[in-house]
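Re: S-adenosylmethionine structure - here you go.
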Amino acid sequence: MLFRLPGVYTPQRDTWLLAEVLACEDVRPGTRVLDLCAGTGALSLRAAAAGAAQVTAVDLSRRAVASTWINARRNGHSIRIMRGDLTEPVRDEHFDLVVSNPPYVPACADALPVRGIARCWDAGKDGRALLDRICLQAPEVLDTGGTLLLMQSAMSGVEKTRIMLEEQGLRVDVAARVEIPFGPVLSSRRGLLEARGLIRIGQHTEEIAVLRAAK
Ligand SMILES: C[S@@+](CC[C@H](N)C(=O)[O-])C[C@H]1O[C@@H](n2cnc3c(N)ncnc32)[C@H](O)[C@@H]1O
């Protein structure tokens, strides 16, 4: 059971699909793991439980940082927790494995929320505000031979992510994909998403995917 302060993302299907892919990675005591957009720290905990001795969790939200800290303590894991914007707090470091379940939901506007629960999912009109930045920044903090595991919705352009990561010299494949029913956020945006052509008329499921990119 994870501790979660109000306003922090409740781990759900996307979190657990990414955790399943993470479980297939070769994580050893020397593996340096970075969890970008950590939320409750669910993925950091999985990495630590898998044997990684060096796990770093980064999130912009103070409440997420506090939640991750408490979850690390409760589970007896030593996790370095940093508050900041994506890779900014670790820009001079290198990691063997970067995992990220960032905000990727297409929103009404391009301006990102500065607080509140919507900061967990809103990612600009095309859903790519964070994905595009991760495609550029993650390769910089990945060591040679390192791997990025990145979660997103098909609505926010899996091909675009693949192309951007390949342009950074990474080898990319889709490690997992699954169709899930719309939750409350997407259900409330169905009209908007239909009007933008991001979903079919009457669609009420979305495909989420984990991209695996190796440097
Ligand atoms: C979809 S939640 C994922 C949380 C957790 N990794 C999980 O899978 O359950 C996205 C997280 O990204 C964080 N976030 C949003 N913008 C960020 C940014 N620019 N830098 C770091 N974290 C950010 C939010 O605070 C939120 O905790």
